[in-house]
Known about the structure:
Strand content: under 5%
Oligomer: single chain
Largest sheet: none
Amino acid sequence: MAPGIPRDDTPVVESLETNGTEDANVGSQLPDEQLKAIKKVIDSLYAYRDGHDPSKVFHRKVNKRAMPDYYEVIKEPVALSTLKYKLQNRGYGTFADFVRDCALIPHNAQTYNRPEAGAYQDALVIKSVMERELKQLAEENIISAQDAILPDLGEIPPASPRPAEEEEEDEEEDDEDDEEEEADDSEEEG
């Protein structure tokens, strides 16, 4: 783990009061109320559950060794750990900067993955949680209505056709599943 980047199970910010400094906003122009709002949004993203944890795949940036082509496609990788790190280090100059980083998480997942992929589907869930949390902050007058809107980061490209090899593998898996179901049905009948 890189030094200075918090583990996923650590609190986002130990204290938003001063963290041992005289001025809580060193490096940030945001009022404490907005810093606390950022923490609330991040905590909500980590805590949301609907049968499973849709945030899990977004806790850390994609591993370059495991998926080297990801960084050829995605030019601004962002993960929930990025949001936490920037909050802890007062890296957000404006609330809009935070909202843009938030928007990059689902946008990147939708850009890189196929619509049927779990990461793509989880990105849609995370995006809706973000939008709900930001709307609530705007209703509480913590942020402007304009800052509550995820920015348009460009179109999500259509999924490229799957390589023939993948389609053949899926067809073989489907055939195997059909054969297993037929075997199960014949056992039940006998």
